[in-house]
Design brief:
Elements: H1 12-25, H2 40-51, E1 58-63, E2 66-73, E3 82-88, E4 108-109, E5 112-114, H3 122-137, E6 146-151, H4 162-168, E7 176-181, E8 186-190, E9 193-202, E10 204-213, E11 217-218, H5 227-240, H6 249-262, H7 271-275, H8 279-286, E12 292-300, E13 306-307, E14 310-319, H9 324-335, E15 339-347, E16 350-351, H10 357-369, E17 374-380, H11 386-390, E18 395-398, E19 420-422, H12 423-438
Parallel strand pairs: 3-6, 3-7, 7-18, 9-17
Antiparallel strand pairs: 1-2, 2-6, 4-5, 5-19, 8-9, 9-16, 10-14, 10-15, 11-13, 12-14
The structure holds zinc ion.
Length: about 450
């Protein structure tokens, strides 16, 4: 970290914890049905922090109180393609009675900031804000244009946030080639090594409704044309199906690196054998190795002695980049001719390569702050706003750097009870982002 130009200029490391706490205290719960408080208060707070250091963010509202903001920070060389740094302002809801500390009080205890959004993703919003503010106060400029964007509605798919911005205000991202955001850049302790996972790929999703239609009738009679029977057969075939391994370049690289760290032989025809030694790895990697389809809801009937005319099931399907067609063909085979499928919600898969100057900048920044660590790409089984921005041709990475204690179950923090982030990790993250920004 550079020395501040005067003792009055607060450093990012000084500010990051307070900024994170202030953001957590602004309840921006997203219930997915528009009933929440919205992101306006959080967006206005962020706009204030940026205005204070001379940036002029633009506010956008996709609906009442569904607020996002964007500001372009001119770099040394504006002829270079820009870098997008984006974070969402909404959080998933939290039930205070389940928590050790009030989820919106942002208590600091046991070396951590506790609260909803501490890792998803007000921590990254805070780290970015802290670093940008320090640079502005010191009169520094990034090497190329940086577009800072804080978004509504990520937790419900971005229809009022990233998707809306991309559809309605694509000009804000003109000339941007790459992006960084959440769910990557954190450390995982494997054996004696610390491995930083950079997200370079995301599975796609197809939420399907299955419908069986047959003949209604009396529950006392012989009745072979039964919608409930047909639907449940289809659902159980899907639920029991063993999806074949479909390895993308990201997942292969991830497995090779992890096998090396674990000191095990990697058999690419049975990659799970190598991961079996490490629970967290098996859990995180397993779902990225293949398509998945999980039946999640059933709906049929209204009276015990009436055979209903229709039966419905909801299935959550996720596909590996490049395997959407195979997913749907397999589902069609499994459900057979008596059940039809309808689309409810879908989103694309994305994958980029783990190379180039921006990746080098991430790896170097992590190496400088945590010498001897390893940096590895991985595929996320869920999605982030990077999917929306990929529609503008922007190459997205999950890079919200955190060095975490070895015993912390970080994956459980996302949307979990007692979500928290170590204060040391926040400070580490600002140092990494500072270095990254200087070389990006
Ligand atoms: Zn998130």
């Amino acid at each position: 970290m550079p020395e501040p130009t005067s003792p009055d200029v607060p450093t990012a490391e000084d500010e990051v914890v307070d900024i994170c706490r202030d953001l957590i205290r602004i309840d921006s719960s997203n219930y997915g049905d528009g009933s929440g408080p919205g992101e306006r208060a959080a967006a206005e707070h962020v706009a204030g922090l940026l205005s204070e250091v001379g940036l002029e963010p633009q506010i956008f509202e996709s609906a009442e109180r569904r607020t996002s903001l964007v500001v372009r920070w001119a770099g040394e060389d504006s002829s270079r393609p820009g870098l997008l740094v984006h974070g969402h302002l909404d959080v998933v809801p939290a039930e205070a009675r389940d928590w050790t500390y009030d989820p919106f009080a942002a208590e600091v205890a046991d070396g951590c900031v506790w609260g909803r959004g501490a890792v998803d993703m007000k921590h990254m919003d805070a780290m970015v804000l802290a670093v940008v503010r320090q640079w502005r106060l010191e009169g520094r400029r990034p090497p190329r244009d940086v577009v800072l964007c804080f978004l509504a509605d990520e937790e419900a798919g971005g229809r009022y946030g990233a998707h809306w911005m991309v559809d309605n205000h694509p000009g804000q991202f003109e000339g941007v080639s790459e992006a960084i955001s959440e769910v990557g850049g954190f450390s995982l302790s494997v054996g004696d090594e610390r491995v930083y996972l950079i997200e370079t790929a995301q599975k796609g999703l197809r939420w399907l409704r299955l419908v069986a239609e047959a003949r209604a009738g009396h529950g006392s009679l012989i009745h072979h044309d039964n919608a409930v029977t047909a639907l449940s057969e289809a659902v159980s075939r899907i639920g029991r199906y063993e999806w074949p391994i479909r390895m993308t370049p990201t997942v292969q690289r991830f497995l090779e690196e992890m096998a090396d760290v674990l000191g095990v032989e990697l058999d690419l025809t049975d990659p799970e054998a190598a991961m079996a030694k490490h629970d967290a790895l098996a859990r995180s990697a397993g779902a990225t190795l293949r398509n998945t389809a999980n039946p999640t809801m059933l709906r049929a009937g209204y009276k015990h002695n009436v055979i209903p005319q229709t039966a419905e099931a909801m299935v959550d399907c996720r596909f590996v980049p490049g395997y959407e067609d195979e997913l749907l063909a397999t589902i069609d085979e499994l459900i057979g001719p008596d059940v039809r499928r309808e689309d409810v919600i879908s989103d694309i898969a994305v994958e980029t390569t783990f190379d180039g100057a921006l990746v080098d900048a991430m790896v170097a920044a992590l190496q400088a702050e945590d010498p001897g660590s390893r940096t590895v790409p991985y595929c996320l089984s869920a999605g982030t706003d990077n999917k929306s921005f990929s529609l503008l041709g922007i190459r997205g990475f999950g890079f919200a750097p955190l060095r975490l204690p070895a015993d912390m179950d970080f994956a459980a923090m996302f949307h979990g009870i007692d979500e928290r982030v170590p204060v040391d990790s926040l400070r580490f993250g600002t140092r990494v982002l500072d270095r990254f920004l200087a070389t990006s």
